[in-house]
Amino acid sequence: MTQITLPHNHGESADELFSLLPAPQEFQTSAELFGLLSDESRLRIFWILCHYEECVINLSSLVGMSNPAVSHHLRQLKTRRLIVSHRSGKEVYYKAADTPQVHTLHSCLERLISLSDSTEHQTEVSNDTETR
To answer: Where would one find the signal peptide in this protein (predicted)?
Structure first.
């Protein structure tokens, strides 16, 4: 077995790091997913659909966007298989897909939201302390 050495040696073996390092394509796929969810409106729609099944009209009302704009976001989420849909009469209903990937993304989103809440609270407390 060949030992891997890095150009700047810190006295540690790089073999373990290289054995754990995912392939570049895995990072590319992850970056695309982060890109998809980097839009605030799309992220809000995804969050809603993780909790409720909704139609375009209700989603539009909830996020304050036009029906075509919401449909555009839904199409992108559906293309990545993050949501699924079904028709009931003339209505199409959407919800988060029941997959491990979606469950993980939803869990991460909930954690990030809770972190942003605590960060905002800490900022408010810090600003209150500074003004005293």
So the answer is: none
Domains of the chain: 40-131 (1.10.10.10)
- Checking if the pLDDT of 116 tops 90, the result is no
Token couple for 111:
């954690």
* Region of 45 on the Ramachandran plot (φ > 0 left; ψ -120 to 50 alpha; else beta): alpha
Task: Work out whether the CA dihedral 62, 65, 109, 124 comes out positive or negative.
Answer: negative
Cβ atoms 94, 49 nearer than 8 A: yes
User: Does the global pTM surpass 0.90?
Assistant: no
pLDDT of amino acid 127: 57
Q: What is the pLDDT of residue 13?
A: 74
Angle, in degrees to the nearest 10, between helices 67-79 and 40-51:
70
* Both tokens assigned to 119: 């960060």
Q: Which of 11, 111, 19, 92 is nearest to 49 (CA)?
A: 92
